[in-house]
Design goal:
Layout lengths: L3 H4 L3 H17 L7 H8 L3 H7 L3 H26 L4 H17 L1 H15 L14 H8 L14 H25 L3 H17 L8
């Protein structure tokens, strides 16, 4: 985590460092990212950098953690705005993440993040990040979900449904980016799968 000296900086100074780091980490792989380039763009000294962070992986961890917190915050507000309707919430989260990924810099950062976590010499970042931030957040927010919309009330069944729904969301977004689908095309794809989850595939009255 960042050192207290970083946390004591003004929001403007922190944003400047964050922006410089994001630019570097979206351009080259995390392992090849240069601290020298970051401090040059952020207009800080190398000594200052190490007063703020242990190393570049400490900075990467902080950035990923901040990104996750933004997603969790949006998820909470979306769930409240949808009055606990999980389907509406998922569609809102889909649109939010789609727009985030439209930004070319975000695309580069996400690509390099995926490659980093797939590499064999991955640095342990479990102290910074939650591997399933959205799904785990929903599990914790179950009291806010309108459970009257569920055909069952078993906690295990509810968690299984949440697991399936967010797996479908992830699959839909990956499909959209790989196939260069528009927001509306991607949303229709997601909604068609959500309808199957909601109403099932089996004919009524049949086993």
């Amino acid at each position: 985590m960042p050192k207290q000296t970083f946390m004591n900086l003004s929001e403007e100074k922190k944003a400047k460092i964050f922006s410089a780091a994001k630019s570097e980490f979206s351009t080259v792989s995390f392992s090849k990212a240069s601290i020298n380039q970051i401090i040059k763009d952020a207009k800080i000294s190398r000594g200052s950098f190490y007063m703020y962070f242990e190393d570049k992986y400490d900075l990467i961890g902080y950035m990923l953690s901040s990104f996750q917190e933004n997603i969790k915050s949006f998820l909470m507000s979306e769930l409240k705005a949808a009055n606990g309707d999980l389907t509406k919430t998922v569609i809102g989260v889909h649109d939010y993440l789609y727009h985030l990924y439209e930004d070319k810099e975000n695309q580069g950062f996400v690509k390099n993040m995926i490659l980093f976590f797939q590499s064999t010499d991955v640095v342990d970042m479990s102290k910074w990040i939650d591997k399933q931030p959205i799904k785990q957040s929903i599990f914790r927010m179950t009291p806010l979900i309108d459970l009257s919309l569920f055909a069952f009330q078993s906690e295990d069944d509810i968690k299984a449904t949440i697991d399936i729904i967010f797996s479908v969301l992830k699959s839909s977004l990956v499909n959209a980016f790989v196939r260069n689908l528009s927001l509306e095309e991607s949303k229709r794809h997601l909604e068609s799968y959500l309808r199957i989850i909601q109403f099932g595939y089996q004919r009524r009255g049949e086993k």
